[in-house]
Amino acid sequence: MFHRRRAQVALLWLALLLACAIATHAPAPAQTSDSQGLRPILNYITSSWDTLTRSTTDCQSIVDPKLKTAAILYLPSGMDEPPSLHDLPQQCKVQVEHLPFVIHRLGEIDTSNINPPGLLYLPNKYVVPGGRFNEMYGWDSYFIIRGLLREGRIELARGMVDNFFFEVENYGAVLNANRTYYLTRSQPPFLSSMVVAVYAAMQKSGHADSEWLARAYTDIQKDYAMWNRDPHRAGDTGLSRYYDFGEGPPPEALKDETGYYRNVAEYFFFHPAQADTYIVENQPAEQRAVGMIYTQQVCGLPAVESGKCNKPRQFWLSADYYKGDRSMRESGFDVTFRFGPFGAATHHYAPVCLNSLLYKTEKDLEAISRWLGRPADAKKWNLLAERRRSLITKYLWDAKSGLYFDYNLQTGHQSSYRYATTFYPLWTGLATAEQAKAVEKNLPVFEKPGGLTMSSEDSGAQWDLPYGWGNIELLAVEGLRRFGFDADADRISYEFLSMVAENFRRDGNIREKYNVVTRSSEVHAELGYHMNVVGFGWTNAAFLELLHALPEALTRQLAREQVQSLPAQ
């Protein structure tokens, strides 16, 4: 009976998985097509997929808005140059070069030796987020693929997943994005989720491909392995952490986030209790961290004589700070104070988001094993998933507050930073019904007039209060729906959709993030890059997916709102 029950549970999981994945490419509901008020924004989203599509044989793809360096395209070491690139140097005034070494794992190559930095070749077209993000990004692409599938663009979505297979096979893992300076880090692991969604769409269209699925199974395992060996293991917890293999300040931050590290250094200088090991002063030159040297002079304090200043002090940010900063960028949440000020301690935490996604990867690999007729593998992945679920409950769940928190490896205690990643365990299905209910009761911590904010702390960083992001809105709403909290999901979806639509009417575009407190696309994030990028890949996708799941009555109400707000002709 025990084995029969386990088989029933496995079949139920597979059915739920397929249902969820198939939902990502069903046609849009009829009620949205007859809505004059929604038609402009839906047309914008549909046309954006083409506007944001890139190819490494396309001149505009080579441009890097972040660095503005020489145009160069790199192929993997030893790879024959594809015929499609033969005319690229003349057409685009770009060099085509090979990387100096074969790369088996991230961190094997010192990216500072790849000079000038450049774009990494990918075999298929891909959709970029927009603006300064003119590459194929690791976690953005999952949400973008959801949007593509929603509009029936299966081949483009599949081509993007094939590009990630290419990255895994040539660089050892999914990359943050396809630039040479990203060869030191990955991004949150959504690869298995991409595969499941695309394969379900292929099945429904009658073009299921078992060879493609077998390749996916191999490459997902390779990417998964990176997160489960040192240095990505989170101490002796059995969980995983974010960890960038590079050292010193990342070049894209130096070039594109003017003054950021000076702000960081100044903050730690004036908040020594929070500086920990992040600033260094009065050390021999050979012990200095890679990075800039700062001079700070304090004037006008009571301890200083009137009209005089303290002696200037020289200091610099430490290697440990830069490791945390880089690892924060691997997490995708750059910048937040969730992992301490400026994310400086990111590599010292076992995070809720990463371990929830690895649980889902294990469950996805269990399902794919069964699809491929490998029951022994399926059993192995099920055991690994259940072990991770247990460890997440042990280290990351706080029953008293009813929230999931990141675990600080240095202190041996949970963080107290309330963050929207608490909804990840609901989305991935690892939470129990009781845990999900406790999280749902905490919605007032995050819910604002425009949807869910990232945190309860206004740090001045773009991944904290008062900002909301479409990708997290989507995960949170789908997590709530998974556990039957449809009324909450409908309400939050409506808040976010109406805010995005309202701002679209005003400025004619969709942004990467929104101030969900003021329901505005005007943001004033003080830390990190200071723009609110137009495009925008995952917001477009979130709009489509949230709208699709909205009850018909609410969809019509939303459409009427837009019509009533249109200017008189």
Blueprint of the fold:
Layout: H1 2-23, H2 30-33, H3 39-51, E1 53-54, H4 59-62, E2 72-75, H5 88-92, E3 95-98, E4 119-120, E5 126-127, H6 140-150, H7 154-171, H8 191-204, H9 210-227, H10 251-256, H11 260-270, H12 272-275, E6 279-281, E7 293-296, E8 313-317, H13 319-331, E9 349-350, H14 352-371, H15 375-396, E10 397-398, E11 403-404, E12 407-408, E13 413-414, H16 424-428, H17 433-441, H18 443-446, E14 447-448, E15 451-452, E16 467-469, H19 470-482, H20 486-507, E17 513-515, H21 537-549, H22 552-565
Parallel strand pairs: 2-3, 2-4
Antiparallel strand pairs: 1-5, 6-8, 7-8, 9-12, 10-11, 12-13, 14-15, 16-17
Helix pairs in contact: 1-8, 3-21, 6-7, 6-8, 6-21, 7-8, 8-9, 8-14, 9-14, 14-15, 19-20, 19-21, 20-21, 20-22
Q: Report strand %.
A: 5-15%
Q: What does the radius of gyration come to?
A: 24 Å
For the largest beta-sheet, the strand count, sense and barrel status come to: 3 strands, parallel
Please give the order of strands in the largest beta sheet: 3-2-4
What portion of residues is helical?
Answer: 40-55%
Oligomer: single chain
User: pLDDT average, as an integer?
Assistant: 89
Number of strands: 17
Distance, first to last CA: 70 Å
Salient structural properties:
22 helices; three-stranded antiparallel sheet; globular; single chain; three-stranded parallel sheet; mainly alpha; 569 residues
